[in-house]
Amino acid sequence: MSRTPNWGQLPALVITNVFQHLNHRDRLNASTVCWHWRSAIFQPRFFDRIQFDVAREQNKKNNFFLQKLAHIVSEVKITFDSSNLYDVELTTEILFKLSKSARLLCLSIWPKNATLVTPGICLRKQLRAAAYSEEEWNYILKLFVQPLKALLSRTNPPLQALDLGCSEILALHASDFLGCSAKPQCLERLCFASVKQDPGHYPLGLIEPNLFEKCSSLRVLTLDYDIICDELLQTLQLLPLRQLIVHVHGIDEDHCGLSEEAWASFRSKNPQTELHLTLVCAYEAVDILHTHILRPSMPLTHLKVLFCERINCEALEYLSRHYKDTLRSMIWVDSMRIEEYRNIMELVLRTEQDPLVMMAWRCKKLEEIIIHGYVLDPHNLVGVSRLRGRELQCLEVSRIDLSIPSVMMGPFIEEISAQLGKKWCPLDAKTLPAVLGFYPVPEEVRDRYILNYIRKDIMQ
User: Fold this and answer.
1) C-alpha 4: how far from chain center
2) For position 181, what pLDDT does the model report?
3) For residue 321, is pLDDT > 60?
4) pLDDT surpassing 60 at residue 186
5) Cystine design at 161: which of 189, 200, 340, 397 (Cβ 3.0–4.6 Å)?
6) CB 43 within 8 A of CB 74
7) DSSP state, 186?
8) HSE value, Cβ hemisphere, 13 Å, CA-based, for 149
9) How far apart are CA 404 and CA 109, in angstroms?
């Protein structure tokens, strides 16, 4: 007489073999059969990464992750509201528990705002002080820096990736993080670039170039422009970098800039490196972008100019003349001012040709153009679409010359759609993000948009 098998008593090895033939969702469903099947799923082979979304309402889920998964996964991302002290302190608790993990290889800390609240930050804002207080510094040192240094100083396994999520105060400790790395030769991704709380007045960080000398596996690096010099660039050219992301905020009068010779040497040694240059609320740097920052030998593939409150047409023309073999993306984003309905056509009169058309003609790898906050001539947009055709994967604008009657816009839109090979139209009030609407925009809304936008660049 045959017996009905007791599925709840299958050996763990058998259950594991069954799970290996299922996708992740089906595996999770199967693990709900019983406690025995459930216990078999918590293995490194079935969970390689988790994300903590820190918030009071997520406490139960995050506690479960800490108990069941934190010690077996190799990659963790933590997102949290950095303007909320309760969430910040929950994040530090997670960091301390992760610092004891024996399997963690990659860690990303993603605050949702440029401001990282500490018990003393309200006083600093009230006093309008740019320097961090001793209380704030000690708080960050104890609750953020120490657990990160513990992870970096671990030798088995060594940490391979650290992303500080554009946090300004954490980026100021970048030198400490590099200095305590037990095996810098195993580091593959380091994200030390930041978004400043006050883009016009902030403390400057410093990283000694020799700290990168042993990072022989580094493929992705993000840094602030302030800390880069020719000597550092010469060190970086010895590394197998595939992506270098540089954030520009203010321009310190003592910063000597980066020379054409240094960039030429870097590019000759790293012909495959992508350079992403991002200006973030760089109100002064945007005016000297083409004279003091851009250099002909830069391996520039992506340019982002975010909320700098003006467009620099000479810089756009510079792009088309010097990066015709590398440039793939050009993004220039601002909010629209009601009192100053800015029209790019008034600005380009200083140049011989429309810079966007010239860019589309000369830059053979250009696949993305995004411009918000400025009114564009539809004739030039048609010219851009004809020159790039279907190779232009993204053409995103939100303001079209208002002097043209709306009934005449249809043929322009149809022509651009035909050239791009897909339905196209400018973004309207319903599809445009609120942060790109009419000025003024709250700083916290703008900063959150910036953080989400620039993090898309990082190569995983």
Assistant:
1) 56
2) 95
3) yes
4) yes
5) 189
6) no
7) G
8) 15
9) 47
Give the closest residue to 304 by CA, choosing from 188, 361, 222, 240. 222
Cα–Cα distance for residue pair 118/99, rounded to 1 Å: 21
Taking 70 as the threshold, does the pLDDT of residue 322 lie above it? yes
Which of 395-417 are b and which e, b meaning 16 or more Cβ less than 10 Å from the residue's Cβ? bbbbbbbeeeeeeeeeebbebbe
Which positions ≥6 away from 181 have C-beta within 8 Å? 152, 153, 158, 159, 187
Q: What is the token pair recorded at 331? A: 């993004």
- Position 198 scores a pLDDT of 86
Q: Picking from 7-21, 80-94, 282-296, 360-374, which range would have the lowest pLDDT averaged per residue?
A: 7-21
The residues, ordered by sequence, that sit 6+ positions from 8 with a Cβ below 8 Å of its Cβ are 33, 34, 36, 37
Q: What angle do CA 203, 208, 210 make, to 5 degrees?
A: 165
CA distance 242 to 271: 9
Query: Peptide bond preceding 355: is omega within 30 degrees of 0, i.e. cis?
Result: no
Distance from C-alpha of 303 to C-alpha of 363, rounded to nearest angstrom: 13
Would you state the pLDDT for residue 338?
46
**In 3-state terms, what secondary structure has residue 266?**
helix
Q: How far apart are CA 226 and CA 41, in angstroms?
A: 47
Q: How far apart are CA 63 and CA 85, in angstroms?
A: 19
Q: How crowded is the C-beta side of 292, counted as CA atoms within 13 Å?
A: 15
Q: From the CB of residue 301, how many other CB atoms can be counted at a distance below 10 Å?
A: 18
Which residues have a Cβ under 8 Å from the Cβ of 338 and sit 6 or more positions away? 438, 439
- Find the Cα–Cα–Cα–Cα dihedral 82, 87, 93, 97, rounded to 10°: -80
- H or E segment and range at residue 19: helix 12-19
Judged against a pLDDT cut of 70, whether residue 349 lies above it is answered with no
Average confidence (pLDDT) over 1-28:
68
Mean pLDDT of 109-114: 92
Question: Phi/psi at 275 (nearest 5 deg)?
Answer: -105, 120
276 φ, ψ (degrees, to nearest 5)? -105, 120
CB distance 239 to 266 below 8 Å: no
* CA distance linking residue 84 with residue 176, whole number of Å: 26
Contact at 8 Å (CB) between 113 and 448?
yes
Task: Confirm whether pTM is higher than 0.85.
Answer: yes
Q: Where are the beta strands (DSSP E) in 39-134?
A: 49-54, 75-80, 106-111
